[in-house]
Amino acid sequence: MEPQEEAPTLRDAVARSPGASMPPRLDEEERPEGGASLEADGAGADGLWELPVEHAERRPECSRCSRPQKVCLCPFLPVHPLHISTQLYIIQHPAEESKVLRTVPLLTACLPQDKCKVMIGRRFSEERDVELSTVCRKSGTLILYPGAEATNLEEFITDAPVYPSTIILIDGTWSQAKDIFYKNSLFRLPKQVQLKTSTSSQYVIRMQPTNRCLSTLECAAVALSILEKNHDIRETLLHPLQALCSFQLQHGAQIRLSKEYLLKNGLYPKPMPKNKRKLRKMELLMNSVKI
Ligand SMILES: [Zn+2]
């Protein structure tokens, strides 16, 4: 990985007081490469990265977008579910389901029910998860997980022997997704792909580990627009995310710079970990080496 230009900048973050009206418009030219499909480890146990604007207890939720009714995002969703031929499977870490600001409900609300299936769990087996096993063994199935073994999706589809019909995404923090990917042999069966995009995350209110990491919704938006060969899909799917971030910023949320940016600029607010493995991971992040 190459050193990245950072966006949003520190200047943006400092200048942006609570109540700022719009999410940042990132300069297209400065956007670093995208590719990872993982959300941050940052929204962690100590609550440091949690947003101050939403309370932990669940309020009545909108049945379509799963947002609290008062801040329902349905006006930003397409009137009718998008017409797509690709089948999406979201493998969701159980911890992700309970998070207040999650992107998968927005994604499922935009897609036909039968085209987007969310499976919650950490371990999946051939015996217990027959449908998933069958899907993983199909030649038209892809799994989106970045790494040395992964092929760029756009390149892959140009000469794929069988045009992909199904794509699997993992929804969780970086470490949760890694655990799910490597500890389930089923996920080694589909062709592994990644996204090579010039976009950095627009999900600016949740800290991403590196500048290239996209939220699950963004990954799905980019992947589907490539597979369906329709750029409008990406715009439509990102619309509710942009509305969510805009709303949160208007109500006091702060832009979350990536952990990579904070580390590289000496702004990481917590002491460096004592655990050697974690420390090594941080050092790799600082040096922009793939972890
Ligand atoms: Zn709603």
From TrEMBL:
Enzyme Commission no: 2.5.1.25
Chain ranges of the DTW domain: 58-253
Recorded superkingdom: Eukaryota
SMART domains: DTW
Annotated spans, Disordered: 1-43
Catalytic activity annotation: a uridine in tRNA + S-adenosyl-L-methionine = a 3-[(3S)-3-amino-3-carboxypropyl]uridine in tRNA + S-methyl-5'-thioadenosine + H(+)
Keyword entries, A-Z: S-adenosyl-L-methionine, Transferase, tRNA processing
Enzyme class, UniProt record, top EC level: transferase
Annotated Pfam families: DTW
Family named by the database record: Belongs to the TDD superfamily. DTWD2 family.
Record protein name field: tRNA-uridine aminocarboxypropyltransferase
Organism in which the protein naturally occurs: Jaculus jaculus (Lesser Egyptian jerboa)
Gene field: Dtwd2
